[in-house]
Write a structure and sequence with these properties.
Blueprint lengths: L7 H17 L2 E6 L5 E4 L8 E5 L4 H31 L4 H12 L19 H6 L8 H18 L4 H10 L1 H6 L8 H23 L2
Helix pairs in contact: 2-3, 2-5, 3-8, 5-6, 6-8
Length: 210
Amino acid sequence: MVFSRLTVKMFIALCGMAAACAQAGSAIYVSYGADGTPSFSSQPYDSNYRVFLRDDTPALERKSHRKASAQLVERREKLKPLIDSTALRHGVDPDLVRAVVHVESGFDARAVSPKGATGSMQLMPATAARYGVTNLKDPAQNLEGGVRYLKDLLTLFEGNTHLALAAYNAGENAVLRYARNIPPYKETRLYVPEVLTRYESYKQLNAQNP
């Protein structure tokens, strides 16, 4: 019942504390007011506070996560100029492309999925051939093909980013087959909001650091 009282602002703050908790290997504490409203803190300020969430992740594992995160940022910054130039050349928001690349490959230009999708934008061989990509692991070629494909999907679905992303994941025919709705595939239903969340994060990040 307590969770129904959480406001969006409180939820965002809690998510931030959870991230800090994971990084520090500490805990989040909660205290309830007379009306049942929760108050969260990283410290137990008095005896009313109880442990709400504790990070028991081993230190070695936390270190591994931090290292992986740092490597992702390094790859992202390396690809940034290429993403920006390719996206702008084709009239696509670079932050949207960045979000797709983040979710698809973690900015790994040499990533290969079990299904054969390859490169930073995880192009399938048929899609690569369609856009003249001859070397899927070449960052410039991969981005060129992926951005052109994304642009065509945005055009096909009249600027509807949700449908364009669903089509990027499941194929445009799947979206058309379901009457221009997001197909009821679990992977696609998870993929679209994940990319959109990254998209908003990158837009906010660039607004703060123009």
